[in-house]
Records
---
Amino acid sequence: MVLSHERLKIGRSNVIGPALSGSPFPTHAVGLDSCHEQIFPDPSDPAALRRAWSFEAYKRRELMDKEVHDLAIRFWDAGALGALEIPRLIKEWREPRHPEFVQMGKTAWHLLNSVTETIKGDLWRLPARTRAIHTILDKECGLERNGNGAPDEPLGIVEVTA
């Protein structure tokens, strides 16, 4: 694996982070505004790699409304959503309050942002709720975990080089 920490210019996007060759996780940035920087995960941090795998899978997994309805109930079953929060989640899914969510399309990434927007404010329960949400979305996106927490099948690699 070759690492270089260089500032890369991709379209209008400034990207700072390792340009990776032979990396086991996706290393591309999509839709970055010129005033934001994307920090790539540290390849030696297993938790960061798991998040990178998950987030990439969420961005690629398109969802139909009926799947979102089912996932809302699964979030409730897992204790990640309260019964009164389900209608707020569905409203946030259908009519996102942030324009960036609309631009994402109907993906698991959009759903993650919708559900986290819905559960904001309950700081005591937030970590457990967030873990439950990720567990459900990871399974929905086909991220079956092997012994080290990485997906069994790679999602594909898009390399960014200077």
Note: The two ends are 15 Å apart (CA to CA).
---
Amino acid sequence: MTQEPRPPFWANRMLSYWTPYDPEHLLEHIERLEPQVLQIGHFGPLFYSMAHTESWAYFGMPVAGIDEGIAWWREFVASVQQLGISVVGLMSLGFFFGDHDESGKGGFFKFWYNACLNNPNWIEAVKRMTTQAIEVIGLDGVNSLYNYVGAAAVNTARRGCEGT
């Protein structure tokens, strides 16, 4: 099946939020500012590694749980799109894991992780998260960030990904 080419899109008014700060009033705020594009949220590994935890409230989410988060985002995105605004999601390719010490000061890089971008399994996982964000949640697109390997030893990571 051949897709029709999309018409060119140009915008000069954009809002960007990492999280839905003050979700109760956010839609009213967005409507008042009249952007053409809203970039918001975490729809990649960060969402799937944190949505089921109590820490997820730190990211401004009013609900916890993966299914609950998907349902909330789907409703929110549709509400924004009804205003004639395109919604682009942030897809942070880094994610949190592990136990943090009780003080919450365990050190950012003790629990922040970036996967091997040479790993075909990771690439497949990112494709699935992107598909979920666009086809299920209804985003108009995604903008990925943290597309780097971080402090990983690249040659070691490549050998591990290749199974050698």
Note: Residues 105-109 have pLDDT under 50 and may be disordered.
---
Amino acid sequence: MSERKPAVSTHPQVASPRTTTPSTLTRRSVLQLFALCPLVPACEFADVFVRGGGDTQAGFSLDDPAFQALATLGGMACGRAGEVEVLLIRTSEAEIVALERYCPHEGLDMAPCDNNPRPGQLSLDQGRLRCVWHNSIFDLDGQRVSGPSPRDLQRFPVTFDPATGRAEIVLPRPAGPGGRP
């Protein structure tokens, strides 16, 4: 029996400061979100499932208007897998990178979505993403290069098939007690 690949959601978000604590995805929180979904107009939460290793996966397609910017090198789009919001960047013909969407410095949005007045600036030739709010600079692996950010951006694995335009983000299973998965 084949497993259905979930879709990354583009559920609207408020472009306001966020806490810098990483989201933890639990079975309970996902079920709570799905329970609220019928109450929210145009709710598009990702179908999330757990596979063997316990990782969460969410798929998307460049055919979806929300992700069409990724058809171009240097294109950026927003995505959501469960509770985790990501900034998607097309870095090459064969690669899309997923980084956490909010700068760790003050939790400000770096994505070009949801009417954000100051999205991050991408320099594809230098392999850098700059948070324009306070000038933290990150490489495309999420490593902090300079600026006031206290830490790196979290990067999430993405598998991408340029022939079909389909991609999948993999979010690691949240750590349990004692840091064990």
Note: Confidence is low (pLDDT under 50) at residues 2-6, 10-25, 29-53.
